[in-house]
Specification:
13% helix; 28 strands; eleven-stranded parallel β-sheet; six-stranded parallel β-sheet; 399 residues; 2 domains; 33% strand; alpha/beta
């Protein structure tokens, strides 16, 4: 019995020892595992970081790379900003800046700070400059800073440099430009394009917009061809649109509507004072839009009533010609929903002083005097798929 009891006690004692030993190992292992996890989570990353940058920046502490033009507070009796040396693409040309002299900012007062916006100006060879109104499309932003009468207020200098260019130098978006109406925005968009021309994309507008540019919305110049892209918008205008050499207006089909209220009692069959879209040059393209007349109908046969012309091609004195003009998929008529005998323009399309013009897939209808008026100074032009209809309409006339 003693031997048996001793044997049982011995077995129990042995099992108990094994249990305690295993528990100790398990506890140590768990502690090691937890410590390891905590150690990893508390360890610093390999990339140096800082929570106390002297200048609030989005570039200085990113992978050790900065875009140049680093701003810092200057010294002197007036608020000044030091701008470091840098390089930038300015209208497609690489520009180098030496970093001098310091830029003088607009001062505030001891009680009223003034926010300054510092940027590279593409219209001035990307020289650093500043204003107090804000960044505009085309500006290359550098920093913002608040000033009093003598210095930049500590803690207000903010570095806003970035690695991204807002637009390609020859493609601008009209809705991003300042202006009282869509016409002014488009004008500013076109003016901001480089001297070699480019694209003004106005497809960002919505709803009904106004093209009010006095005396005319000029699309391009003789040496600066511009392509104006229009979206699914109705543009109302009381001022003409003039296309220069090599320029284009391209819409989105009949969803792009130009609604005109241009008329003149002094206009005539040979005058362009009452035309909505004027083409006075060569190699111009008009494509994919609808042009409607939304004013009181009149005639161009006499000067006593309002005369209106939709498209006026080859405008100019005798001897001034336009050639290689392309007009495609364009409708010239009255507004939708106007029924009965109410006409559109006095003259839908007038072609004069023009040769080698291509007029394809046009629907010029329900205009008052002429849907199409071709003068005796227009020669060698092609009219393909030209549709015309309406009461008392003369589809084609030689004058």
């Amino acid at each position: 019995m003693r031997l048996e009891k001793y044997s049982l006690d011995s077995t129990s004692w042995t099992a108990n020892c094994w249990f305690k030993w295993a528990s100790r190992i398990l506890n140590n292992s768990l502690c090691g595992l937890v410590a390891g996890v905590l150690g990893i989570s508390l360890a610093y990353g390999q990339q140096p970081t800082t929570d106390s940058a002297t200048v609030d920046t989005n570039a200085r502490y990113v992978q050790g790379v900065g875009p140049g033009y680093r701003p810092s507070v200057g010294t002197g009796a007036a608020p000044t900003l030091n701008i470091g040396a840098g390089t930038a693409f300015c209208n497609g040309t690489l520009i180098e800046y030496s970093g001098t002299p310091p830029l003088t900012l607009a001062p505030g007062t001891p009680t009223t700070p003034l926010r300054n916006y510092i940027y590279l100006d593409p219209t001035a060879n990307c020289a650093p400059t500043s204003n107090i109104t804000g960044f505009s499309p085309g500006h290359i932003p550098i920093a913002t800073a608040d000033t009093n009468d003598t210095t930049i207020i500590p803690g207000t200098l903010k570095d806003v440099r970035n690695w991204f260019h807002a637009t390609l130098p020859n493609i601008h978006y009209a809705d991003a430009f300042p202006g009282a109406n869509a016409g002014e925005k488009i004008k500013n968009c076109i003016n901001a394009l480089p001297s070699t021309g480019g694209i003004c994309d106005a497809r960002g507008f919505e709803g009904t917009q106004t093209l009010a540019v006095d005396p005319t919305l000029m699309v391009g110049t003789a040496t600066k061809p511009v392509t104006l892209l229009l979206g699914a918008v109705t543009f109302t205008t009381t001022k003409p649109i003039t296309l220069a050499k090599g320029s284009q207006i391209i819409g989105l089909g009949k969803a792009t509507v130009i609604s005109s209220g241009i008329k003149s009692a002094s206009c005539s069959l040979t005058s362009s004072a009452c035309a909505t879209i004027i083409v006075a040059s060569e190699r111009v393209v008009l494509r994919d839009f609808k042009l409607v007349y939304a004013e009181t109908p009149g005639t161009c046969e006499t000067g006593s009533t309002a005369c209106s012309i939709g498209l006026d091609i080859g405008v100019g004195p005798s001897g001034t010609v336009g050639h290689h003009i392309a007009v495609r998929n364009v409708e010239v008529t009255r507004p939708d929903g106007v029924g009965g005998t109410t006409p559109g323009f006095s003259i839908g399309l007038r072609v004069q002083n023009t040769f080698y013009g291509g007029f394809h897939d046009l629907d010029v209808h329900t205009n008052n005097d002429y849907n199409l008026l071709v003068t005796n100074t227009a020669i060698s032009n092609d009219f393909v798929n030209f549709r015309s209809r309406g009461t008392r309409m003369i589809s084609r006339a030689i004058r």
